[in-house]
Specification:
heterodimer, A: 114 residues, mainly beta, six-stranded mixed β-sheet, five-stranded antiparallel β-sheet, B: 113 residues, four-stranded antiparallel β-sheet, 11 strands, globular
């Protein structure tokens, strides 16, 4: 059974810092991995999708990498801003079938302070 | 392009009642998935529909059911509500299948008293 873990569970950084969020998964047979952010009481906002054949994806100040063999993905946020404060979730899709079932990580709650 | 919409946004029900939640995917998207989010269990997959057929199902009791219509809109139903069903129910849509990025709606907050 796939298990997805995110470390740290919570993180507080001052504005302007670069930071790295970690995501680990136990079964390396994944099809793709997606990063989301969730603001309190709200739905999920998609940040980046990394296909299994890719090693990284970039969008603005965000860069996500994927190392399937080691079961790890990292989300790098450059020059953090207070608006980045949210919970960040990674999710994987298994390498079987065509269904879009996401298995989510436990999340990292990020606070960026002024 | 409009995002994923879910109605209602908030619901309060009592134990034993049933409830129906609705999800309208992004225009052109044919896959709709449902997730339950609770503080204790996190985000858990309920089921996925594609072309009006259930393509995958999570480990939830039969009280949880869903369907998809020809216009890709989806509904999920929970019968005989229990206190533990209180959660944020999220709907996600994607173009076709696992190749495609998934987009989530704002969720329906269900409270069971």
């Amino acid at each position: 059974k796939q298990e997805v873990t995110q470390i740290p569970a919570a993180l507080s950084v001052p504005e302007g810092e670069n930071l790295v969020l970690n995501c680990s998964f136990t079964d390396s047979a994944i099809y793709n991995l997606q990063w989301f952010r969730q603001d309190p009481g709200k739905g999920l906002t998609s940040l980046l999708l990394i296909q299994s054949s890719q090693r990284e994806q970039t969008s603005g100040r965000l860069n996500a990498s994927l190392d399937k063999s080691s079961g790890r993905s990292t989300l790098y946020i450059a020059a953090s801003q207070p608006g980045d404060s949210a919970t960040y979730l990674c999710a994987v899709i298994p390498n079987t079938g065509t269904a879009s079932k996401l298995t989510f990580g436990t999340g990292t709650r990020l606070q960026v302070t002024l | 392009k409009a995002g994923v919409t879910q109605t209602p946004r908030y619901l309060i029900k009592t134990r034993g009642q049933q409830v129906t939640l609705s999800c309208s995917p992004i225009s052109g998207h044919r896959s709709v998935s449902w997730y339950q989010q609770t503080p204790g269990q996190g985000l858990q997959f309920l089921f996925e529909y594609f072309s009006e057929t259930q393509r995958n199902k999570g480990n939830f009791p039969g009280r949880f059911s869903g369907r998809q219509f020809s216009n890709s809109r989806s509904e999920m139903n929970v019968s005989t509500l229990e206190l533990g069903d209180s959660a944020l129910y999220l709907c996600a849509s994607s173009l076709i299948d696992r190749d495609n990025e998934q987009f989530f709606g704002p969720g329906t907050r269900l409270t069971v008293l």
